[in-house]
Amino acid sequence: xxxxxxxxxxxxxxxxxxxxxxxxxxxxxxxxxxxxxxxxxxxxxxxxxxxxxxxxxxxxxxxxxxxxxxxxxxxxxxxxxxxxxxxxxxxxxxxxxxxxxxxxxxxxxxxxxxxxxxxxxxxxxxxxxxxxxxxxxxxxxxxxxxxxxxxxxxxxxxxxxxxxxxxxxxxxxxxxxxxxxxxxxxxxxxxxxxxxxxxxxxxxxxxxxxxxxxxxxxxxxxxxxxxxxxxxxxxxxxxxxxxxxxxxxxxxxxxxxxxxxxxxxxxxxxxxxxxxxxxxxxxxxxxxxxxxxxxxxxxxxxxxxxxxxxxxxxxxxxxxxxxxxxxxxxxxxxxxxxxxxxxxxxxxxxxxxxxxxxxxxxxxxxxxxxxxxxxxxxxxxxxxxxxxxxxxxxxxxxxxxxxxxx
Length: 406
Hints:
Helix content: 55-70%
Order of helices and strands: HEEHHHEEHHHHHHHEHHHH
Strand content: under 5%
C-alpha cells in the first residue's frame, strides 16, 4: 500500500530531503532510517550463534526493505520487535551491549548512535507510527475511479483511515508511556528531537485530530448527524490541534521536515477553528434570544476569518521545503469552503441592526469544551520471542554437560 518516502540509498547513508513530496493530506515528517549494525561483534560472546543470526537477519531485513512497500516494512518491524525485546527482558545485561545507529529527519544532528536496546525499540515504534500515517495519506488522496470522473475518496477508505490513525497514535502512546521512562534522565534529554516526548505527543495528537476530521466529514455526509454532533466533533478537533501545537512549537525542529511539521499543525489548528466556530454559530442562531443572534453572527464571522487564515497557512506549508501539493478539496474543508462565507453573509443580511451594533472581536463566545471521544489503540509491546527461552535452556544444558565432563 503505497511506498516509503526514503530510498534504498538512504538506508545505507545520510538523510536526504527531497525537493518535492507530492500531494499531502496527512503530513508525514520524514522516516527514521536504520543503519547497518554488526550484532555478532557485540553479542557472540553472550548468545548462541543461531540466535544472533536470527536477530541479525531480522534487522538486516528492515534495513533492506526501507524504500519498499509500506505494508512489507511494517510487517518486518512487527516481526522484529519480539526478537529485539529479548535484549531488554528482565533488565537483561544485554540491554546496553549493542550500539544502534539511526538517521532522523527533524534534528539538526542527523545521525544518533546509542548503546541502548530501548533506543532501538523507540525508533522502531516511531517508524511504525510514521508508516501508518503514510498508509493513511495514501488512502485519503482523491483518485479518479471507473464510476466517477471527479477525484474522490471512498467511504471505505475514510473509515479504514480512522482505524489506521488510532493505530499510529497507539504506537506513539506506547512509546511515551512504556519506553521513554526506561531511559536515564540525561540520555532521555539528549535523544534526537523527533523522539522527544513533546514531538511524539504532538504526532499522536495529529493522528487523533486527523481521525476526528474524517469523522466530521462522514457526519456531514450523513443525514442522521445533527448540528450538535458536528459542533462537538469540530470542537474536539480544535482541542487535538491546540494541544499538538503547544507540544511542538517550542522544540527546535530542523532540516525542513521539522519546520514543515510545525506549519502543518498550525494550519490544521486554524482550519479546525473555522469548522468549530461555523457550527457553533449555526447552533447559536437557532435560539430565539436576540443576544444569541448577535453571538451567532460574531461566531460565523470568526469562522470566515479563520478559513481565510487557514488558506494562507496552507500555502505557507505547501511552499516550504520539501515542496508539497494540496490534493483536490474534499470532505470537511470542501464543505466549509462552500458554506461558511455564504452562511455568514446571509446571517448578516438578515440581522443588519444587530450586525451594525456588534463588535465582532468582543462578541465571539468561547467554544464549548468537550472531552475527546477518540482514543489511541491500546497497543502493548509484544511478548519476547520464545527462541530466547530456548536459547537460554540450550546454553544452560551445554554448561551442565561441560561441568559433568570436567
